Amino acid sequence: MEKTLKPMSGYLTLAICLILFVAAVYFFISGVDQSVTFVVLAMLCFLLSCFFLKGLMIIQPNHSRVLNFFGKYVGTVKDNGLFFINPLYSSQKMSLRSENLQGQTLKVNDKMGNPIEIAVVIVWKVGDTYKAAFDVERYSDFVRMQSEAAVRHLAMSFPYDNLEDDHAPITLREGGDKINSILEQELTDRLSKAGIVIQEARISHLAYASEIAGAMLQRQQATAIVAARTKIVEGAVGMVDLALKKLSEENIVELDDERKAAMVSNLMVVLCGEKAATPVLNAGTLYN
Prior knowledge:
Blueprint: E1 4-5, E2 8-9, H1 11-33, H2 36-54, E3 56-59, E4 63-69, E5 72-77, E6 81-84, E7 90-95, E8 99-102, E9 106-109, E10 115-126, H3 129-135, H4 139-157, H5 177-191, E11 196-208, H6 210-249, H7 257-272
Parallel strand pairs: 1-5
Antiparallel strand pairs: 2-6, 3-6, 4-5, 4-7, 8-10, 9-10, 10-11
Helix pairs in contact: 1-2, 4-5, 6-7
């Protein structure tokens, strides 16, 4: 469990170290010509100065120091400035700044078994220094490996799109914020044991793998064409029905079933054709 320490200021200790160092120089110079006692005092002052200097530490903004005393966790210093701690403590520097992780592009299979390429960008920082320092080995490597595992699990849990699964509630391509929220939760669950806080996670690259990209593009185009044709036919049928009703209500012309069939055929060709229809003038009648 993380424990925050607030050590004493190091400016007084720094001043004492300077005084001891000056005293060591003075005693050494005096002892060369006078007595061995001054040389011993010089060495003692110098050793004390070095001992106290070892207890001084400078902590930059958004950094911390994890302190140990002969293998026992003492606490974490998160304040910034010059501090003095027990010189026998060992310390480990740890950054508290937010960091970006640009994941490599992974080739995985989605829920439907289609090979896809996916990559994410993750913003993270250390939230619990005790867990980051002692519960995992090299927490930065742990973040990278677990992030890759989370992305693979996400890709395998959802289809790329709804071409094969029409009833899929969420797809990777159209999930948007929902997919990103699921990814953030997955990363939080995996990295909480290392004291890592996930601030943001977003999919930065998503595409079909190169070996099926062409086929999937043709399939998407075919689906779009079928959907467009369906709308065109629905509209054409409505227009033909409206035309027949108007002709009948206005008593413009009386059409038997054969003439109605011919008219419907002509209107459907005109309305559903990709190119403009070329009219053919009939100088006779429908029957000769």
